[in-house]
Amino acid sequence: MPDHSNALFPSSATSPGGVSIELDSVTKTYPGQKVSAVEEFSMRIEPGELVMFVGPSGCGKTTTMKMVNRIIEPTSGSIRIDGQDVLGLSPHELRRHIGYVIQQIGLFPHMTIAENVATVPRLLGWSKQQIAARVEELLETVQLDPAEFANRYPRQLSGGQQQRAGVARALAADPPVMLMDEPFGATDPITREKLQSEFLRLQAEIGKTIIFVTHDFDEAVRLGDRIAVLSERSQVEQFDTPAAILAAPANEYVASFIGSGAALKRLALMPVGTVRLSGATGDLGGRPSIDPASTLRDALNLLVVTGAEAVDVIDPTGNRLGQLTHADISAALTQAGLSGSAVR
Amino acid sequence: MTAPVTATAAPLGQRSRGALVARVLAAPLVVALLALGTTLWLASLELDSIEKRTLNTNYIVDRVREHLVLSLSAAALVALLAIPAGVLIHRSQSRILRAVVLTLANIGQATPAVGVVILLAIVWKTGFSTALIALVAYAFLPVLRNTLTGLAEVDSAIRESALGMGMTGWQVLRRVELPLASPVILAGLRTSLVFAVGVANIATFINAGGLGDMIVNGLKLQRYPVLIVGAALVAGIAILIDWLAGLVEDFARPRGL
Does B167 touch chain A (CB under 8 A)? Predict the structure, then answer.
């Protein structure tokens, strides 16, 4: 990465990845409206954490997120990034150090993909060579071949490609914090799934502190380290790991948001390798097998489809680790429910 | 409010090659035929002394120069004033300012330019500056309206992402909004330019020269060759200017749009 100091947030200069975000009694009331859009919102987000804001449209989740980079100015309360009060910083300077991705992507249609990605580095005054190197690196990171895409214009890209370019643009100056407003909301289900898994892989690599707004609870479960389920006026109904929320919804509202099949959703969060397997019994021949990186949901699926008594768990080197029966899967679910948020 | 003035042009790339060539060559061809026809017709006439005083190269070149200087200065001044005015109104988000300026510009265009120029000459003075002011008032609206429309049409998501990346208001305007609005603004400028060329004829009434001299003299003295040459020149210039402006529009359109 080119040499550039992220001087705005002190700890991001010394350590890569994210910084903390603290919101304290943040309120937004629009002039002429009796009810606040966001009321007394408080939350602490740890460095490198991916927090999902989930809630119905109009609940204030986007408003809350947009106050962090001051696209919307809070009426009262304080917001600190890495301990620093953002309301005391110049908004433009602040935003150059916060990645921002919106659903409509908002690529500049009159600029090439390379120029789009170079936007923030240019605002920060990097040299031409630094910018060129960084653009190439980023396009590769988001799996857009620079030779093919750098000089194209946004309208020459598919929706999924545009969204990747949007993510590359937000990452350009290596900001410690990213704000993402339903970034995959406008893509078709197949593209969306692909973008989500790419995004997870990317986040595992870069470890940014991310606030990710979505109305899709399944997306929140899939991506989030923690999920904040929000109701009207951005009230936090529950703020916990996906597994804990699925196992023990705090109230009716959260339960209704999870919808049906909570147990199945929880199984999808539990890798086979992390649960207690039962020993080998009975006939070992001809049984279906699964690898430890798959989830319990995959294992259950296999059991249902094949009608077998148990599936063998076999690691990639061919070692047989044990087997899973219906009873083992149920036990794992109960166990995880008892120990709260242990899984994931 | 009236709809924005836009060029009929679709993006350049979507045109077939034949249609493009025809469009680029049509206007010069028409003007060349017009010039040829007029010249041949003139050559067939016996001109009297009054006509000869007017229908000679020096006289015609002078009138054309006056006409062009007047109309081009007016268009330049309109661009210089109306685009910033549009930007200012757009930025201020003030409905009152918007209503006031648009009303003034509408009045400017609705009022007959002949009346304005003569009134101005009576209360102020005759000559170039007065004609220029009348023309600017007359040709102000298309640029103003198209600037407003062009800026309003910029996708709010694009504006928000520009702000979200840390651009200042000025940077958003210069790097994003104006480039994206430029095709619409240029279309307005083209309209204003053609207005100015057409209406610059009235300069003759207040002794500010131009091709109006030939037309009015031809009428007054009943010398139809003079009248017709003057009229043909104005038409030819208007067509050529519109053609040139069209080329500039296509050429200056940001790539990627």
Answer: yes
